[in-house]
């Protein structure tokens, strides 16, 4: 059984990390049983919004997920979030909760770095004006780099001697040294492949060791930059500066406090709001809607301000797009296992409900690995795709390809 995908949220104090976490883990979105068997105090369930398979067949009214939600063909798939605490300068030296912060990071498959682009909080999260948020991005990357590099350098002499004495491959030696960061052989190999003309490990100098650590970080900790507080007047110049400095980084413009506010108003029936979009309707917009409550002038003015400063300018608050950006970095594909490939029913007492389950796997994953992730180590008799087409165990999944599957297990075939 494969481990769950974990997305880590990091950010200095007062950057908006807690607000962003609250908006990503909106309790109002949950239906059905809880999807994860254990949740540590610093873990939570977020919801990755995707196009549900029910929409392809115009069967939205029958879609009732066991976990998460489906609203008009937009599905919220549960995904594990890790709230990484203790982010302060010199964390790698053990300052603050530095050791806990860095060890927590190892669980994450991807990071979302909440950056305060208003420039109104300094490196410690204290109120200021004119702070350069570029410092926060460089500082986070440097903390992780110095931590991994320091751990390697501390024992590099003995590592090198053992490598020569045992005649291991570079990959084998690095797997022993970097496996503790929850990195498998494939990830370490990907990191080494990023370095052209890599010399033998015994010939590495300090500069080469640093290049290897940087390459490993890129593979192990792909990062989405959440450029938060975009409604502040100083945000534009800082956003431009960051995007110019990091053109290859995946950056999402966000206003998490706006998202939390809009969802709160929607839950109280003051507005109709579609998360991830610019669409907000009040009683004044649709007076015939009996479910909407009227708002006072102060609240109406605030909605108009939100529309002008955030929604109409940027198209949304950006919060929904954060997990979508992380999923793109991780190349995640939603797969819908069903019991009946013709009706798309999922059993579990759901009557005629369809597409009850959805799991996230990496693009290119063999179909047999998907089966094992769902059912454990079983003997597969047959695999069917849409229309009853036979699917090979070696076939791979992609968006819209082999993503609706029915597995037939040999009776008594659990190993």
TrEMBL record:
<dbReference type="InterPro" id="IPR031167">
    <property type="entry name" value="G_OBG"/>
</dbReference>
<keyword id="KW-0547">Nucleotide-binding</keyword>
<dbReference type="Pfam" id="PF01926">
    <property type="entry name" value="MMR_HSR1"/>
</dbReference>
<dbReference type="InterPro" id="IPR027417">
    <property type="entry name" value="P-loop_NTPase"/>
</dbReference>
<dbReference type="GO" id="GO:0016887">
    <property type="term" value="F:ATP hydrolysis activity"/>
</dbReference>
<dbReference type="InterPro" id="IPR013646">
    <property type="entry name" value="YGR210-like_G4"/>
</dbReference>
<dbReference type="Pfam" id="PF08438">
    <property type="entry name" value="YGR210-like_G4"/>
</dbReference>
<keyword id="KW-0342">GTP-binding</keyword>
<dbReference type="GO" id="GO:0005525">
    <property type="term" value="F:GTP binding"/>
</dbReference>
<protein>
    <recommendedName>
        <fullName>OBG-type G domain-containing protein</fullName>
    </recommendedName>
</protein>
<dbReference type="GO" id="GO:0005737">
    <property type="term" value="C:cytoplasm"/>
</dbReference>
<feature type="domain" description="OBG-type G">
    <location>
        <begin position="5"/>
        <end position="274"/>
    </location>
</feature>
<dbReference type="InterPro" id="IPR012675">
    <property type="entry name" value="Beta-grasp_dom_sf"/>
</dbReference>
<dbReference type="InterPro" id="IPR006073">
    <property type="entry name" value="GTP-bd"/>
</dbReference>
């Amino acid at each position: 059984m494969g481990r769950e995908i974990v997305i880590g949220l990091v950010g200095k104090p007062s950057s908006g990390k807690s607000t962003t976490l609250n908006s990503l883990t909106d309790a109002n979105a949950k239906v059905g049983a809880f999807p994860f068997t254990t949740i540590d105090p610093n873990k939570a369930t977020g919801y990755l919004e995707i196009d549900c398979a029910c929409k392809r067949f115009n069967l939205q009214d029958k879609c009732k997920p066991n976990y998460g939600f489906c609203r008009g063909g937009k599905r919220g798939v549960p995904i594990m979030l890790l709230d990484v605490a203790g982010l302060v300068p010199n964390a790698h030296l053990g300052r603050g909760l530095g050791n806990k912060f860095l060890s927590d990071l190892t669980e994450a498959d991807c990071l979302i770095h909440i950056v305060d682009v208003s420039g109104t909080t300094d490196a410690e999260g204290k109120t200021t004006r004119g702070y350069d948020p570029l410092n926060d991005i460089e500082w986070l990357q440097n903390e992780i780099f110095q931590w991994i590099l320091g751990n390697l350098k501390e024992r590099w002499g003995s590592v090198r001697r053992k490598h020569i004495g045992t005649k291991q491959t570079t990959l084998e030696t690095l797997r022993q040294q970097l496996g503790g960061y929850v990195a498998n052989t494939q990830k370490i190999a990907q990191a080494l492949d990023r370095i052209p003309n890599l010399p033998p490990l015994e010939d590495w100098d300090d500069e080469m060791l640093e290049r290897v650590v940087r390459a490993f970080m890129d593979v192990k900790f792909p990062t989405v930059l959440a450029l938060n507080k975009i409604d502040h007047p100083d945000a534009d110049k800082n956003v431009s500066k960051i995007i110019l400095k990091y053109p290859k980084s995946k950056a999402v413009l966000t206003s998490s406090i706006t998202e939390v506010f809009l969802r709160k108003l929607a839950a109280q029936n003051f507005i109709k709001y579609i998360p991830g979009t610019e669409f907000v309707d009040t009683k004044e917009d649709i007076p015939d809607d009996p479910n909407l409550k009227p708002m006072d002038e102060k609240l109406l003015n605030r909605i108009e301000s939100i529309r002008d400063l955030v929604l109409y300018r940027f198209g949304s608050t950006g919060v929904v797009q954060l997990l979508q950006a992380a999923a793109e970095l991780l190349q995640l594909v939603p797969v819908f296992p069903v019991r009946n490939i013709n009706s798309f029913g999922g059993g579990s007492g759901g009557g005629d409900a369809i597409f009850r389950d959805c799991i996230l796997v990496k693009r290119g994953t063999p179909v047999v690995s998907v089966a094992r992730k769902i059912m454990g180590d079983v003997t597969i008799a047959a695999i069917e795709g849409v229309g009853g087409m036979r699917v090979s165990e070696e076939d791979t999944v992609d968006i819209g390809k082999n993503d609706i599957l029915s597995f037939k297990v040999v009776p008594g075939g659990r190993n």
